[in-house]
Amino acid sequence: MTALEHSRRESILLTPGPVTISPGVQAALLRGLGAVEGDFPEVVRGIRRELLSAAGLDQAEYDAVLLPGSGAAALEAVIGSAIPRTGRLLVGINGESGRRIARIGLALGVDTRRLEWPAQAPLEPGQIAMILESDPAITHVAVVHCETSTGLLNPVGEIGRVAARQGRALLVDASGSLGGVPMEPADGSVQFMASSSENCLQGLPGVGFVLARRTALERCVGQARGFTYDLAAQWMAQTHNGQLRAAPPAPSLFALGQALEELREEGGARGRATRYSANTRTLLAGMRALGFEPLLQPEVRSHITTAFRYPGHPGFQYDLFSALLRKDGYALESGTRQRDGYFPVAAIGDLYPGDFERFTCAAHRVLTTMGVDWARPAATAEASDTMVRG
């Protein structure tokens, strides 16, 4: 085993992002090329083409804009550039990611209206249609495709058609799903899609990006509320000379290029979803055997993240559970949702069913150490548990 392969398994990340990356992506960091290298503009152009392909978007109608930062940076670029001063943003909220969009809008001084929805239920397109009919001042609608705090999938395609019928622009936060969930492009009604280089793309943090209709990007000219995240200016710079306006995150870009090549070799989002679904089936069976039940019903949860309810045992403490697992080489998300009584486990990254068999064995050892030493037979996993949904 090489040093890279050994370090890869020192800690397995079971978080929605960052994720465990492949040896190939790690090796891409060692190229040692900077943004001034002669081939760097072509690297940027190639990544932009591959991102559109990964999303299933028509390259004649859409373009990709790279940004230094995260998925949140990409969202900030869209909200700060696409929505005019006289516009109003409607945000569908049924989890942490939706709340983040609303906070970005408010921080940028955008007139923001919130549609609060239960965390265990997908957004209702009919409810959004009613709001749009009653509030003509709304110009843009923002929704999250996959709420990684719970694994919930929202019906982006249906919401996109509702927005298009009423002449509103749709912004999709695809940070938790792009590359891992086959996505219906909503008949061209998605104007902007924001995401990042990690999560299901399995790259490194450091690159945010926006996939947008070219006509929508043209309307952004002169509307930005900042410099670095001026979406139209970044688009024009990358189109003209293949460079980002600020110093680019070159190592993360080279890693992203390799990650996109690996995604294509795996069969795109549909092929990757097959592996993630197998991971989730293994995870569900093992966790149910330990007394953990999933938070969401099968028909609304994704194969990206599964949220588990705390077991009904007085000795269970999530902070201790996650800390002991970390010592065993498994990193879960920190206990930010303790008050809600559940925790997420992601099935993404360069991981396979065997990794999740070993994880649930480790979880059993930790529970025994904690004195939570009972278990019950695993429920039979239904095929619908990990259905590939778009």
From TrEMBL:
Record domain Aminotransferase class V: where: 74-336
A molecular-function term among this protein's GO annotations: 2-aminoethylphosphonate-pyruvate transaminase activity
UniProtKB keywords: Aminotransferase, Pyridoxal phosphate, Pyruvate, Transferase
Top-level class of the enzyme under EC nomenclature: transferase
Keyword Lipoprotein tagged: no
InterPro entries in the record: Aminotrans_V_dom (IPR000192), NH2EtPonate_pyrv_transaminase (IPR012703), PyrdxlP-dep_Trfase (IPR015424), PyrdxlP-dep_Trfase_major (IPR015421), PyrdxlP-dep_Trfase_small (IPR015422), SP_NH2Trfase/AEP_transaminase (IPR024169)
EC number: 2.6.1.37
Reactions accelerated catalytically: (2-aminoethyl)phosphonate + pyruvate = phosphonoacetaldehyde + L-alanine
GO biological process: organic phosphonate catabolic process
Cofactor(s) this protein cannot do without: pyridoxal 5'-phosphate
Protein name according to UniProt: 2-aminoethylphosphonate--pyruvate transaminase
Organism expressing this protein natively: Paludibaculum fermentans
